Amino acid sequence: MLILVIAALTLAVVAFAIAIQNLKAPRLGISQGRFAPCGTAPNCVSSQSTRSEKRIDPFPGHPEGIEIIAEIIESMPHARIVTKDGRYLHAIFSSPIFGFRDDMEFYRNDESKWIDVRSAARTGYYDFNVNRKRVEGIREEYLKRTRQGSYQESGFSALKL
Question: Exposed e or buried b for every residue in 87-106, given b needs 16+ CB within 10 A?
């Protein structure tokens, strides 16, 4: 009986620690055109990363790209947009059962003509490629929407893959 009590208390303490960690927002935003780098855990992807296991391709540029991405995210379950302006978007995705939070950022880089992306889990070590798969799902829908008009103006091109 004592072992069950100790196990239950240990589980409660671990759950509380994870919950507190999950609520704490990581360093986000853009500084001199750059996202915060991904850490060493395999739970983050970024188009700005130089490490192959963290690297994911940026999205093709489009003047309304951030707005299009926002519309896609707003249609997704368990997603909430926190910040959105013409060049930057921050969204939080929560897992349906445990409520684990992932932060996703997009930045329209007018210099490179691409939309950079970063997505990372707030807690845990391994995310089973959830962030990479989510980014690729958003990219697929984004390409469908931007290819319809094959927009091309001042260097931005939805067809420039």
Answer: ebbbbbbbeeeeebbbbbbb
Tell me if 89 is assigned to some domain: yes
Tokens 């939070």: give the residue.
101
CATH number of the domain at 148, please.
3.30.310
Note the maximum CA span of the chain.
71
Residue 20 lies in a domain: no
pLDDT > 70 fraction of the chain, expressed in percent and rounded = 78
In a domain, 79, yes or no: yes
Nearest CA to 108 out of 146, 51, 77, 149 is that of 146
Nearest-angstrom CA–CA distance, 139 and 18: 30
Instruction: Kindly report the pTM of this predicted structure.
Output: 0.79
